Amino acid sequence: MDEKEAAKAEENFNKETNQDSSAPVQKDMKHLDFVTSLVVMAVVIWVAVMSSGYYNKSHAAFYASPGFMPTIIAGVLFLLGLYLMIQSVNKSSLRQLIGRIRTTLPRGLRSVRFRNTVAGLVFFALYIYVLFRYLPFWLSSVILLFLCFMYLKAAKPVKSAVIAILNVAGIVLLFQVVFRVPLP
Questions:
Q1: CA-to-CA dists, residue 31 to 52, 101, 170, angstroms
Q2: Predicted model pTM
Q3: CB 63 within 8 A of CB 77
Q4: Which residues contact 141 (CB under 8 A, 6 or more apart)?
Q5: Taking the C-alpha atoms of 9, 11, 12 and 15 in order, what is their torsion angle to the nearest 10 degrees?
Q6: What pLDDT is attached to residue 93?
Q7: Largest interatomic CA distance in the chain
Q8: 131: nearest Cα among 118, 115, 116, 148
Q9: Less Cβ crowding at N or C end of the chain, within 10 Å?
Q10: Which string of DSSP letters, residue by residue, matches 30-67?
Q11: Torsion sign across C-alpha atoms 61, 67, 72, 76
């Protein structure tokens, strides 16, 4: 990729990462389709491996095992990821796609969106593997919502706490009391 193309790609990426999420998406984002297809196919392979473990542990026929449906869904998603990859490579060369990824990846890893995404994943991992394991559902959910509000600076601490408590209370009231669905 020459310097003009690299400068243009960086300028487009700057516009893309600084825009509001509700704004229209840039048209020249084929490299993101390629990256998305790679991520989808990697996740699908992981799901297929996990599903085969369910099948092996169940000692049942494959079509009757708990791993059957995830394997079917993973197969379809793999084909869709492959289709997306083929489309992105057909629209521009593989060399151009990799060049654009090399140009935009370091900047993307430093972007606010990426940082917020990683923080959200950390919060949900904390929720699933720590809070939910040792605290009741309602308390762990209130803590999660409060942490998210505080990280995103959505409101002041007292207002965030009140909103988190009311939201979880509403969910518990609706599902456990009205619909009589047991919550974890």
A1: 32, 6, 42
A2: 0.59
A3: no
A4: 127, 164, 168, 171
A5: 160
A6: 81
A7: 64
A8: 148
A9: C
A10: HHHHHHHHHHHHHHHHHHHHHHHHHHHHHTS-GGGSTT
A11: negative
Q: Is 133 helix (H, G, I), strand (E, B) or coil?
A: helix
The structural domains of the chain, with segments of one domain joined by +, span 3-110, 116-178
Residue with tokens 């809070």: 131
DSSP 79-95: HHHHHHHHHHHHHS-HH
Q: Provide the pLDDT for residue 21.
A: 47
Residue 1, pLDDT above cutoff 80: no
pLDDT tens-digit map of 71-124: 999 999 999 999 999 988 887 888 888 888 888 888 888 889 889 999 999 999
